[in-house]
């Protein structure tokens, strides 16, 4: 027993570096994905001049692919965990982690390369739009799915997962600096500088994925060898003992879906998260539009750049504070407060009106900050749902990637609905069609005459209604769904205790972060 404390101390140092490496993977994703979200719609609409039919067809196909690929990749990754193993063939946690890291080391660089396909016109706009979206989202799904699944595989307790998420937030905040820089390089008339900037980001991401995944794989390969040696020793010592587990037929996809449909907390969570995904992407897609038509006449370009950058970096920095609140009050309560805050701020802005410029600046930035901040906490909730699924269905190994994929199946349509509903709302409120090809109206941002002048022009008023009523509607729907979610408090603690007890013989020290 005198040796154990020193061993734990060594493991503690080891695990801190593992948590930092895990968090750094978020940097290589965020530096690319933030730029993609901000510019892909405007690139195809304003620069490549995609027609309305091709845009809607591309988004419709993307909606299907975007929804299907998450559970498909999750099923391919975790289907071997859905049946009880034969005696002696138990898949250990380090082996699961190695499988995730192998996928990241392969798909991470491919994700970075697919990001580059957007910024050069190499095919007809409609065809390029469709192919680029599907290719990019396929590799992004593989990267994000396995990175998210590692959160549930590396840790069980809320404190451990909160620390992992903390590191992700720090590195995601660093990754958001690419938004600050991108505003300086973005020029619709000449994309050369922006393309060089994107190539630099992609190269940095490729090198990062390669180095970090390699370091983590070496670390867990050592763990796998240790576990195998322990298993061989136990096998030699055991004399005719019955196996701890018994063989069962693998769970089919139909059986798994039936089990999931009875998972009430899962269903209420995806109902809330569908609205959340929609709202996050609505803010990302239309943030430049709101800056242009609500604030451009009253703020300088540098102020707009600062607002844009803050709206991307602040959610990650804010999340560091939210995570401390989560440790004290629980994730459920913090998310509920954020929904109420979003609703309250939107109502205040509606009552104040569109002419309070500084209040409008604060509201537009804070709306995105708190909405994105909520998104950063949802992985913790999904990890808790992984625990509940593991316990309730008595799984031999937690199917974290598959459950993350099923959540995405039901919530990612919000990503496609955001630009479609947004452009439709703009047309309803203002009568302006974003796809109109009149000489002076090639894009929304090329109509300064509509957005300027005295009073409150239709386009400006329409943008104001969009920026206010969308969060009010989203907050009301989310509060209604979240009130039915019961996996918190004593129930959550009981689930975690049961999972830790069930896996006690298989847990490794790396989980004690």
UniProtKB/TrEMBL annotation:
InterPro entries: MFS_trans_sf, TMEM180. Keywords: Membrane, Transmembrane, Transmembrane helix. Its main location: membrane. It is a multi-pass membrane protein. GO terms for cellular component: membrane. The keyword Protease does not apply. It is found in: Membrane. The chain crosses the membrane at residues 20-41, 104-122, 164-186, 192-212, 266-287, 299-322, 343-365, 464-482. It comes from the Eukaryota. This is Major facilitator superfamily domain containing 13A. It comes from Cyclopterus lumpus. The lineage of its organism: Eukaryota, Metazoa, Chordata, Craniata, Vertebrata. The gene is mfsd13a.
